[in-house]
Design a protein that fits this description.
Blueprint (H helix, E strand, L loop, with lengths): L3 H5 L3 H14 L21 H7 L32 H8 L59 H6 L5 H32 L18 H9 L3 E8 L2 E11 L3 E5 H9 L5 E6 L5 E3 L1 E6 L4 E5 L9 E2 L10 E6 L7 E15 L11 E7 L11 E4 L3 E9 L10 E5 H14 L5 E2 L2 E3 L4 E2 L4 E8 L4 H5 L6 E5 L2 E2 L3 H9 L6 E8 L2 E8 L1 E2 L1
Parallel strand pairs: 8-13
Antiparallel strand pairs: 1-2, 1-4, 2-3, 3-7, 4-5, 6-7, 9-10, 9-12, 10-11, 11-14, 12-13, 13-14, 15-23, 16-18, 17-18, 18-19, 19-20, 19-21, 21-22
C-alpha cells in the first residue's frame, strides 16, 4: 500500500490504470479507505545510555576519517641493542683481503681454476674401487711419562693438601680418642663380669626308678601296631595312618586314605606302609567299603605287633583314651583325651577323587585329631582298640576337640568281611531324604525327597513328602540318623518305619534289601 503523497503525485491515467488493475486482481475494493502511515515508535533513551553510545563530538559521518600512519620500519626479529658499527661487522665476518676462497662452488662456473672440483670421495662414487686409508678413529700417540717419584704418607692420604702440623694434630687427637674408648671398654667389661660367673653349676635331678604312667605304658604297647600310609598316583599323593589287626599282614585304615589309588585306572598307583621302626613295605588293597569309610590292606611282613580289639559295649562317656597316628606326616604321635559322646550319627559326603560316603555311629573324643590321623587308632586306658579315627569338625581345619572314630564293633565286622570276601554289602531302604530336617513343636524328622521305583520303600507304600520320625527303635532327627538307623539292621530284616503323613502318625513295615 502506497502513501497519500505518492498518490497525489500520480496522473489521472495512472490512477485509472491502477484502479483497473486492482479491480481485475481483486486486491482492494474501490470504496476501501486509505490508511495513514504507521507511526514511528521511538523508545525513551536515558542520559547515561546516550553518553555511552552517542557519536563523538565533531563527528559527522558513521565512521571516523582514516589518517594513514607514518611508515615505520618493521623488524621480523627483536630490535638490536648496542649494535656494533658496520666496519666492525665487516672485519669480523668479511672475506680476508686477497682471498678468493668461497664457501660454495658457483654452480654456473666452468673454469676449474675459479671453482676447483672437490676431492674425490670413494664413499660417494659408486664406481670407486676399494682402497686402504686412515682408520676412522685416530690412533693415540704414545706419550712419554715422567719418571716415577715416591709419594709420602701425607700425599697419599690427603693429596698433599694438609700441612704437617695439622697432620700431627690429627694423630694426637686419634690417640686421645683411642685412650678414651679403651677406658670405656674396660669399665663395661668389669660391669658385665659382675653379672656372669664361672663358678655357677646347674644341677639336674633324675630318678631311674620312676614308675611309668598308664599313658606311657599304653603308648609303648600300641605305637608299634600303628603304621603310616602313603598313597601316590603320579605326582599326586596323600598321607594317612593304619592299624595292624592281624599278624599275617592285614592293616585296617580309612577308605578315603587310599581311595585315590583304588580309583586309579592308569596303573601308576602305589601304596606304601611305614612301620614304627622305620621299615617300609609296599601294600596291596584287599578290599574297601566306601559306605563305612573302611579299607583293608596287606603287606608281606612278618613279626608285626598286632593291636588288641576291644568291644563297643565296654566304652563309656568319660573314659580316658589315646589317639595314635601320623598327623601331618608326624609319625608315632600320641594325644590324650576322653570319650566325649557315643552314638554320634556321622555321614560323609563324597568329594572329587574320593568316593567315601561313610555313615556310622561315631565315638566322639576331645583327643587332638588332625589331617593324617585318619585310619589311626583310638585306644582305651588298657591299650585296647575302640575305634578308627576318621573325621573332625572344625571351622579352621585343625583340631578343636571334636574328633570322631568308627566304633570297633563296626570295624571288626567290616574288616572280617573284606578279608574273607573282598567286598561288603549293606541293607538298603530304597529312598533318599532331604538334607534339611523338619522341626517344629510337635515333631522332628526327615522328609522323603525321592523313592526308588520297585525298592523296599516303594513296595511298603512310602511316598515322596512323607516325614520319617523313627526307624526300628531309633529316633530319626536328621538325614545321617536315617542312614545309620537303616545300616544298623540286617539285609532281609523287616523294620518298622514310623512316619507322618497328612498330619497322622503311620507305622509302615519295610523289608530291607541289599544295596
Amino acid at each position: 500500500m502506497t502513501s497519500d503523497s505518492t498518490n497525489a503525485g500520480s496522473t489521472s491515467e495512472d490512477r485509472d490504470a491502477s484502479d483497473s488493475a486492482a479491480d481485475r486482481g481483486n486486491l482492494r475494493p474501490p470504496d476501501a479507505p486509505v490508511l495513514g502511515p504507521r507511526p514511528v515508535y521511538r523508545p525513551h533513551i536515558d542520559t547515561h545510555t546516550t553518553r555511552a553510545f552517542r557519536r563523538p563530538s565533531g563527528q559527522a559521518g558513521s565512521f571516523a576519517p582514516h589518517t594513514p600512519a607514518a611508515a615505520t620500519p618493521r623488524h621480523d626479529g627483536p630490535e638490536l641493542v648496542n649494535r656494533p658499527p658496520d666496519a666492525v661487522l665487516a672485519e669480523a665476518f668479511g672475506r680476508p683481503e686477497g682471498s678468493t676462497e668461497v664457501l660454495q662452488r658457483d654452480p654456473d662456473a666452468t673454469d676449474e681454476t675459479t671453482a676447483p672440483a672437490p676431492p674425490a670421495d670413494p664413499w660417494r662414487d659408486p664406481d670407486s674401487g676399494a682402497r686402504l686409508g686412515d682408520p676412522a678413529i685416530p690412533t693415540p700417540r704414545s706419550q712419554t711419562l715422567p719418571p716415577a717419584t715416591k709419594l709420602s704418607a701425607r700425599e697419599v692420604l690427603f693429596g698433599g693438601r694438609v700441612a704437617p702440623k695439622a697432620l700431627a694434630l690429627l694423630g694426637v687427637l686419634a690417640l686421645l680418642i683411642g685412650l678414651v674408648g679403651g677406658l670405656i671398654g674396660r669399665l663395661t667389661a668389669e660391669t658385665t663380669a659382675a653379672l656372669t660367673s664361672r663358678k655357677v653349676t646347674l644341677q639336674q635331678e633324675g630318678s631311674g626308678d620312676k614308675p611309668r604312667t598308664q599313658v606311657a605304658k599304653v603308648a609303648d604297647a600300641v605305637v608299634p601296631a600303628v603304621v603310616s600310609i602313603r598313597e601316590t598316583v603320579g605326582d599326586n599323593g596323600a598321607l594317612g595312618s593304619g592299624v595292624v589287626i592281624d599278624g599275617n599282614g592285614y592293616i585296617v585304615t580309612n577308605n578315603h586314605v587310599i581311595s585315590m589309588a583304588a580309583m586309579d585306572k592308569s596303573g601308576k598307583a602305589k601304596i606304601q606302609v611305614s612301620f614304627f621302626d622305620g621299615k617300609k613295605a609296599p601294600a596291596r588293597l584287599v578290599g574297601r567299603d566306601p559306605k563305612t569309610d573302611l579299607a583293608v590292606l596287606k603287606v608281606d611282613v612278618t613279626g608285626l605287633t598286632v593291636a588288641r580289639l576291644g568291644k563297643s559295649s565296654d566304652v563309656q562317656v568319660g573314659d580316658d583314651v589315646l589317639a595314635i597316628g601320623s598327623p601331618l606326616g608326624l609319625t608315632k604321635t600320641v594325644t590324650s583325651g576322653i570319650v566325649s559322646a557315643l552314638h554320634r550319627a556321622m555321614e560323609e559326603q563324597p568329594e572329587a577323587g574320593d568316593d567315601s560316603a561313610g555313615a556310622f555311629d561315631a565315638v566322639q573324643t576331645d583327643a587332638a585329631i588332625n589331617h593324617g590321623n585318619s585310619g589311626g587308632a583310638l585306644v582305651d586306658d588298657q591299650g585296647r582298640l575302640i575305634g578308627i579315627n576318621t573325621a573332625i569338625r572344625s571351622e579352621s581345619g585343625g583340631s578343636v576337640g571334636l574328633g570322631f572314630a568308627i566304633p570297633v564293633d563296626l570295624v571288626q565286622q567290616v574288616s572280617q568281611t573284606l578279608i574273607r570276601d573282598g567286598s561288603v554289602h549293606h541293607p538298603d531302604i530304597g529312598l533318599s531324604a532331604r538334607t534339611k530336617p523338619i522341626e517344629n513343636d510337635n515333631l522332628s524328622g526327615v522328609q522323603v525327597a525321592d523313592v526308588k521305583p520297585g525298592g523296599p520303600a516303594a513296595k511298603a507304600g512310602i511316598g515322596e513328602g512323607d516325614i520319617i520320625v523313627r526307624v526300628g527303635d531309633r529316633d530319626v532327627t536328621e538325614k545321617a540318623e536315617l542312614t545309620v538307623a537303616v545300616m544298623s539292621h540286617q539285609i532281609g530284616e523287616t523294620v518298622n518305619v514310623q512316619l507322618i503323613r497328612d498330619g497322622r502318625r503311620v507305622d509302615v513295615p519295610v523289608r530291607l534289601e541289599s544295596d
